[in-house]
Amino acid sequence: MKMKKKYTFSALGLILIGLATTACSNSSSKTNEYSSNSEKTENAVNNSTSKTQKGFDGNTYTTKNGSITFDKVTNVKVSDQYRNPDNFTMVIVEGTFTNKSNKSVSPEDWVRANFEFNQVLPSSEREIAIGSNEHDNGTKWDDLFRNSESKVLPGKTIKFAIEYDLDSKTDKVSETYHIQAKNDYDNQPIGKPYEVKAGTDTFTYSDSDNDSSTNVDTNN
Fold first, then answer.
1. pTM of whole model > 0.70?
2. Spatial CA neighbour of 117 closest among 189, 65, 62, 54
């Protein structure tokens, strides 16, 4: 009778040990599964962040909403003896823009939201601002200026030009410019700036208002 009780207690002990081992195994499995899922989530966030903040690829910058390639930058010396005796310089930025969003957007608005344009001076950098595109003054960039202000349809690509103005009295003309990508929500820089050497050109305004163009009726 005593032997039977001892056997019963021994069997019960083995059952309890088995249950405990199973519980520990299940707990460890759940912990490992949670750790694995957390790691996958973290990796997904990091990968997403790195993809959206990688900056320029050559002269092209791409986000989920659009892609832009900066093709050319030109310092254009402007002469206008009628409206601006002090000559000034336009910095013309030419590029190609593809709208990848589901809404129409102009290249100029997209550039304003995503970039900072800086002169590279001997000891510093200086940001310059977008001016008023001279698309009604007979420049060879007229059509491209108009394109920069046009709303590009989703999925479409357009070539454009944007004008930055340098003040004749305070701004020096630079041969090198940095185009810095930035976050549109906090203006923090993304990646390294794209450095570009500027070409040169000239443009002279022509006065389209001629007295001879005024028709006078001499019959009355």
1. no
2. 189
Specify the pairing of strand 157-166 against strand 176-181. unpaired
Give the max Cα distance, the chain: 144
Q: What is the pLDDT of residues 39-79, one digit of tens each?
A: 543 443 333 344 445 799 999 999 999 999 999 999 998 88
Vertex 80, ends 74 and 83: CA angle to 5°? 125
Q: Give me the amino acid identity at 213.
A: S
- pLDDT tens digit sequence for 4-28: 444 444 555 555 555 555 555 555 5
Q: Cβ-count burial of 117 within 10 angstroms (0-12 exposed, 13-18 middle, 19+ buried)?
A: buried
